[in-house]
Specification:
The chain has a domain of about 80 residues. It is mostly helical. The chain is built from 4 helices and no strands. This is Cell division protein FtsB.
């Protein structure tokens, strides 16, 4: 039994084809960075990504529209609730009387209506009542008066 490192029998060892010493190793050319198989795979991924962008955009747009419609629906429900509450008020006869007195100035029989108008600008205007200013003369009246004044001047 041989005590060498190799466990191969001597007949199975590699030798050079010429029968001489073992062949010298040479550096193999490096493979290209992107093979044709990798290029095709990359192209398929790009096409799939482009194919899925439009449906995803449509989906997100529809989700946005749904959220907006739900907000509008919530606002409409709040408006409906407020209107229903206002309608309940109008079923009360006393509330109708109060609104008629306030908005339409209705009075009950035997009452004297008194309407107070809060107009501080009008009150200040009335306190300073001056004679209305004369209307400015029209341009042709001014011209005619100047002609008459020139005619009336004594000649020397």
């Amino acid at each position: 039994m041989p005590t060498s490192r190799t466990a191969r029998p001597t007949g199975s060892r590699r030798t050079s084809q010429s029968g001489g010493p073992a062949a010298k190793r040479t550096a193999a050319p490096r493979p290209r960075a992107l093979t044709s198989r990798a290029t095709v795979l990359l192209a398929v991924f790009v096409v799939l990504a482009l194919a899925y962008t439009y449906p995803i955009r449509v989906y997100l747009q529809q989700e946005s529209q749904i959220a907006q419609m739900e907000r509008e629906q919530t606002e409409q429900r709040a408006d409906i609730a407020a209107t229903a509450k206002e309608l309940e008020k109008w079923k009360d006869k006393e509330y109708i009387r109060i609104q008629a007195r306030k908005d339409l100035y209705y009075v009950r029989p035997g009452e004297t209506p008194l309407l107070v108008i809060n107009d501080p600008e009008g009150a200040a205007r009335d306190a300073d009542q001056k004679a209305p200013a004369a209307a400015p003369a029209r341009w042709y009246d001014t011209l005619w008066h100047s002609v008459q004044a020139a005619n009336a001047e004594p000649s020397n």
